């Protein structure tokens, strides 16, 4: 298996974060991972309300979040553990994540807000 790419926090760009969280589904997935601290299975974040994200789309969303520097993924057997890098990102860009997630929480976008 190929190693997973995780950017160093110094290489995380605000543009990448904004792009990653521009999708309401990705913002909701990130909010769930952040609230849980660590999600042992991707299927734990696949349901957004009454809608279930297909595995292929979920993998793509997780990859975008990981490559933007928002989450850290580690393989554990056949599962992936997804950890939030919220504290690291907050230290580098104070208030950015809270502002974005609060904006989604107040919107009517499907899958938006914190679960």
UniProtKB/TrEMBL annotation:
Residues 16-98 form the HTH arsR-type domain. InterPro entries: ArsR-like_HTH, HTH_ArsR_DNA-bd_dom, WH-like_DNA-bd_sf, WH_DNA-bd_sf. This is HTH arsR-type domain-containing protein. It comes from Methylobacterium jeotgali. Pfam families: HTH_20 (PF12840). It comes from the Bacteria. SMART domains: HTH_ARSR.
């Amino acid at each position: 298996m190929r190693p997973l790419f995780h950017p160093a926090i110094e290489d995380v760009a605000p543009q990448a974060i904004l792009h990653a969280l521009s999708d309401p589904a990705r913002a909701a997935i990130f909010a769930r991972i952040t609230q849980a601290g660590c999600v042992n299975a991707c299927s734990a974040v696949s349901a957004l309300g009454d809608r279930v994200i297909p595995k292929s789309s979920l993998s793509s969303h997780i990859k975008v979040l990981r490559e933007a520097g928002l989450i850290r993924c580690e393989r554990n057997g056949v599962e992936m553990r997804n950890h939030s890098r919220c504290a690291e990102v907050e230290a580098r860009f104070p208030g950015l994540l809270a502002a974005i997630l609060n904006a989604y929480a107040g919107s009517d976008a499907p899958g938006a807000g914190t679960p």
